[in-house]
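Students often ask why we bother predicting the structure of a whole assembly rather than each chain alone. The short answer is interfaces. A chain on its own may look different once its partners are present, and contacts between molecules only exist in the joint model. In this exercise we take two input lines together and write out one structure for the complete complex. Read the inputs first and try to guess which parts will touch.
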Amino acid sequence: MRQRGTLYTYTVVHSGTEAFKDRTPYVVALVEEDRQIRLARVEGYTEGRDIGVGTEVEFMAEDPGGQPIFRFI
Amino acid sequence: MRSVSVIGIGETKMGRFSERSLRDLILEAGEAAVQDAGIERSEIQALFMSNFNAQYLCGQGHIGPLAAEVLGLGNAPTLRMEGACASGSLAFRQALIAVASGLYDLVLVGGVEKMTHRSTEAVTEGIASASDFNLEAGLGATFPALFAMIANRYFHDYGDAREAMAICAVQNHENALLNPDAQLQKRITVEQVKNGLPIADPLTIFDCSLVSDGSAFVVLAATDVARAVCRKRLVEVVGSGHAGDTLTLATKKSLTTFAATVNAVKQAYAMSGVGPGDIHLAEVHDCFTITQLINGEDLGFFPKGKGAFAVADGKTAAGGPIPINVSGGLKAKGHPIGATGLSQIYEVVTQLRGEGGARQLPQADLGLTHNIGGTAATCVVNIFRGR
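Now the answer. The structure tokens for the assembled complex follow.
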């Protein structure tokens, strides 16, 4: 089974920087795994999806900067 | 350490002035402060300048000599301080320390920012440099996104504060109606805030501070010198504190209490010998509406988790027991980043002198300014007393 975490907090971003403006809306979150909290992007968000603190997410990959990317399960 | 007082203040109107240059903004606010102090510019022994990001936004560095040239300060020493959105009060605190130490008797502190000539994406990217540009912005976490995450965690820990956040925005807009220097003079409603253009949930455009051009200056003098010069009510800097925290959001011990604020205000209260219950007005850093709620708690005005209720209950309105942001705050007066901390001081000094005109508070002898940079990675708090 893939490594899982939960949302410690999150937001749906609607207005991004130049590099991200075509990807909105997208989710960034602080993901908690084994009491460790990391900033992550969470892929697979669609408008209206019910997410909240505690929602489970699954580790996907690291971005080029070494930051984690998760996805909704 | 010697006692230090504010003897002069000046600021431009905040707004969208894409046709005005940095020089132009500096000249207006700087001259106003020098004139207000009633001093000759030759008496100014040093200039402490604040600017966040003119290098990126305007292609202009070396703001110190630029401002000294514009204001005719000859060979006076000058430097530029940068601490993101706290740059202004950071420059103020360095000037304060320099006068308190006895090194200088009379100095000028100034701040300037020019932002509105750039696109929203460029401004968003410029502001993102106040967070960890690679780790946070690089992942898509804009500044509003970082504070939106703080808001959602606050809701989880203390209950839904959406209504109180909206009331913050409404109240600051209401206050700005009476401030001729405010960028936005427009009444808004709670429903408008909640249903505004979404930026990063739960924040809408109305929860975010403004993108502004503007400048603000303050003249500081050793209090014994100030007594001989100052023709207005003397405003003494009775307390000052400065603290920091980690740069990135994920590494902070708490998202819903800003440790930098708690530590800075503790220093300022200890130095001044006053407490939160003694303060008559505060200008606090409302970069986002959620920040203003948290600030009210961290500064000790309200118990932890009760800041939202206090705001919703009108406790921070101009007529309430602890008026917060009677200037209109960053939300409606404006947020020209490098000038913001000094513009907060401009408002408190104006109120303590009784020069607030239509927005003058009936009792204003002790005022506080609170200015944070980044996700509260830098915080400066100052406390002022009218003598």
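Check your guess against this: DSSP finds 14 helices and eleven strands in chain B.
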